[in-house]
Design a protein that fits this description.
alpha+beta; Membrane-bound Lytic Murein Transglycosylase D, Chain A; LysM peptidoglycan-binding domain-containing protein
Length: 230
């Protein structure tokens, strides 16, 4: 909560694991911005796969996966001394702290940190995609006194969390599965429907000549269980 008479500040916290459980040892961590953004943008996307329709005519557009979320925002860093409760660090020092937290390689995990951005109702977990810096105010000697950072973050979740969030194990939706070495049709049916007995219906749906030998890399369409059971 904000202190009396104050406002909550956007806070950026670095983590060393994709579960966002272990806070990174990068210092400082977290970083609390002194000037909140005047706006931010969130974007979402969905990926589809085109599948040949029954009878070889037309194509179906089938849900594959979501593309995740993206967050775009601009942050102001000030070194004029006129912002209440602002750090005494210069703009260059503040930017160095930010880059160390969200952009530079964390040697312990051999990649940039996972980052969480929290402000009001916003709670975004992801990783930095791009960052640009515009310097907008200078002292007479050329020292930067104000800078605007434009950053884009990509939402992050591991495969387990992603599948749970998308409910990809639901038997009531269409699935597109890429065959891996060792996969069998009964095994895939059991994985998706919870029952291997639908393998003949799935073989017919995909017009498979030999369902006993699946070619790795091939995409198979698994219809909703109501259709597979017909």
């Amino acid at each position: 909560m904000a202190g009396k008479g104050g406002l909550d500040k956007l806070t950026i916290t670095g983590f060393a694991d994709p579960g966002f459980n272990s806070q990174a040892r990068t210092r400082p961590n977290p970083i609390k911005v002194m000037i909140n953004p005047d706006q931010y943008s969130q974007a979402m996307g969905v990926c589809y796969t085109k599948q040949q329709g029954a009878g070889g005519t037309g194509k179906k557009v089938v849900f594959n996966r979501d593309k995740g979320e993206a967050l775009e925002l601009a942050l102001i860093f000030d070194g004029t001394g006129t912002v209440p409760d602002a750090p005494t660090k210069s703009v260059d020092e503040q930017l160095a702290d930010l880059k160390r937290l969200i952009y530079e390689i964390n040697g312990a995990i051999h990649s940039p940190n996972y980052v969480q951005l929290a402000w009001g109702s916003l709670l975004f977990k992801g990783r930095l995609k791009t960052m640009g810096i515009d310097y907008t105010l200078f002292a007479p000697d050329g020292t930067a006194l104000r800078a605007k950072v434009k950053a884009t973050f990509l939402g992050y979740h591991d495969n387990t969390d992603g599948r749970a969030a998308q409910k990809l194990s639901s038997p009531d939706m269409t699935h597109v599965v890429t065959v891996l070495a060792g996969d069998t049709l009964p095994l895939l049916c059991h994985r998706i429907y919870g029952d291997s007995r639908y393998y003949l219906a799935v073989a017919d749906h995909n017009r498979l000549d030999d369902f006993r030998t699946l070619e790795p890399g091939r995409s198979l369409l698994f219809p909703p269980i109501a259709q597979a059971g017909r």
